[in-house]
Amino acid sequence: MGSTVVRALDGVDLSIQAGEFVSITGQSGSGKSTMMHLLGCLDRPTSGEYYLDGDLVSRMTDRQLAIVRNAKIGFVFQTFNLIQRTSAIDNVAVPLFYARKTRVRDAAMRALERVGLGQRGSHKPSELSGGERQRVAIARSIVNEPKILLADEPTGNLDSRTGKAIMEIFHELHRDGVTVILVTHEMSVAVQAKRVIRMRDGQIVEDRPMDDATRNELLTHGGAVAPREPAFSQPQAPAAPRMARPVKVNA
Amino acid sequence: MFLFRVFLMALRSLWVHPMRTALATLGVIIGVGAVVAAMAIVTGMSARAEAGLESMGSNRMFVSPNVQRRGQRTIGNFDTLKLEDAAAIKKECEAVRYAVPQVGSGGLVRFLSKNTNAQICGTTEQYPKINNHHVSEGQFITATDVQSSASVCVLGHKIKKELFGGRPAIDETIKITSLQGGRSFRVIGIMEEKGNVGFTDLDQQIIVPVTTAMEKLYGLKTVSVIIIEAISGKDDDIDLAKTQVKQLLRRRHTIRAGQPDDFQVQAQKEIVEQFNTFKLMTGVVLGSIAGISLVVGGIGIMNIMLVAVTERTREIGVRMAMGAQRGDVLIQFLVEASSVSFLGGGFGVIMGWSVAKAIENATRVFETITTPMAIMLALSMAIVTGIISGIYPAWKASRLDPVEALRFE
């Protein structure tokens, strides 16, 4: 910023295999949102390489990145980000529209049914509860059958019961073979993944598989809940991220 | 198929704020409406005038006093042409077949309880031959009527309808009131429907003997115009007739060499050219007004689109996250701007057609003609306005950074 170099990510080296259920957690400013942007091909690293499904995406053009996002990545946001005054089924069909697919309504309906909202296709976001909106968002994220589902604080705006229901959907999708990457500051949500990556000051400080003992330890000692931060709504360090070593995500 | 879906998406977006959309299109509605109305009026006027001019043949000339306007001043003398000049032209100019003197002015006409305004035309028995305009009922004025300044008249097609409706008019008496007072005239004939010649509606005329008009209606000593027909439509004959008339009149008016004519001789061709120039000028003026309205309308659309881009920044970010390419975003907003403009154009066409019809009904002088070409042109202008106005907002939307857009509150 100005004459000061801010490293949102510094020396990150990460590999995620197809079919994994990973959570990335950390306090505000830890770099997890920047990591999410890179993994989701919304941004490019200042240096370093990012391979997604064997392709070097960190050198791709904007157009190529848009195609990759449409084909391989599904996003779920904390604030749902549904298009207002547009029905649920039309919201779900958005990725299909940009994929230039025909018969979009059939595919959109199937995705809605998969999240249990087959009867609510004609309802607009204002007519749905918070949990239902997030389910529509999840349906939208999977309608193109992506390789990776990236969820940024998916339960942040939901009560605990609804949050549980949403997490159950992620578990189901994971069981169906989708690679799920969850970004959250809530340790109680993070430990539900099969692997937890903890970040601090732009670096990975912990990366371990999840079992019951680890879960208890993180919940009790290492999992102090970070102050709630709406992931996309506060300006992060605007300088481009720098990664010294490659991040590979094999979808 | 993709563009069609983009168009449907655009219509949906416009429907979100219907009042805002309506206000944004106002400038385009007015601009397109002005174009359509103007073209309908000019086309209608031209068709009627040109049909009238064509039916009269190309070998006519008009001799009138040489009066010119210089700003507020008038230079020249209105009273230079005498009745006897016409007779002399007919007698002495071999290249001239007919020479018909005419005077004309307005008058109030009354029959029983019906009143109307009419154009009174004082002329001679040769009027039908030279104007190719004949009676459909009764008879025309005769040489005897002219010599005796008889109080007889022949009604134009529209005047007959207005005063008499469906009942017979021959041998009825009407009253014509002018500056000299009121006079009774016996109706001896009805003219066939003719339409406009230049700016004159021949169906709104009442024809009386030129001597009667000069002495009894207007107190005139001179005539307004002498209409001349050359022996043929060939350019040589027309030029010869023009030369002979000029030489004769200069002699009769004792105009010395080097002095300017106190009259002017205009061939029909020149009148047509003047009319065409008038048409062109009218088109340019009306087109300019329409153009300015469209520019204003375009600015309104650009403004609304910029507001929409700001309001929907986060939505744009979400779409990009879902796989929208920059080109997709650009097309979406361009189609929205064009759709707004096209809708405005549609309403503008309806408004323009209605205004033209209202003018037609109010003036009852000519029929307005709205052609498919005019509608296509107006709608095309609307779409072009939308595209031009939408380019900058659409470009701005397409250049948004997805990460920043998703963060936007």
Q: What does this molecule look like?
A:
The complex is a heterodimer of chains A (251) and B (409). Chain A has helices at residues 32-39, 62-72, 88-92, 94-98, 104-114, 130-142, 160-175, 187-190, 212-222, and strands spanning 15-16, 21-26, 50-52, 55-56, 73-76, 148-152, 179-184, 195-200, 203-209, 247-249. Chain A has 251 residues and is of the alpha/beta class. Chain A has one domain: P-loop containing nucleotide triphosphate hydrolases (Rossmann fold, 3-Layer(aba) Sandwich), CATH 3.40.50. In chain A, a hairpin with a 2-residue loop joins β3 (50-52) and β4 (55-56). The longest helix of chain A has 16 residues, at 160-175. Chain A is globular, with a radius of gyration of 18 Å. Chain B has 409 residues and is of the alpha+beta class. Chain B has two domains: 2-51 and 274-407, no CATH class; 81-261, no CATH class. Chain B has a six-stranded mixed β-barrel with strand order 4-5-12-7-9-8. A two-stranded antiparallel sheet of chain B has the order 2-3. A two-stranded antiparallel sheet of chain B has the order 10-11. The mean pLDDT of chain B is 87. At the A-B interface, α2 and α4 of A face α1, α10, α11 and α13 of B.
Gist of the model:
Chain A has helices at 32-39, 62-72, 88-92, 94-98, 104-114, 130-142, 160-175, 187-190, 212-222, and strands at residues 15-16, 21-26, 50-52, 55-56, 73-76, 148-152, 179-184, 195-200, 203-209, 247-249. Chain A is an alpha/beta fold. A six-stranded mixed barrel of chain B has the order 4-5-12-7-9-8. In chain B, strands 2-3 form a two-stranded antiparallel ribbon.
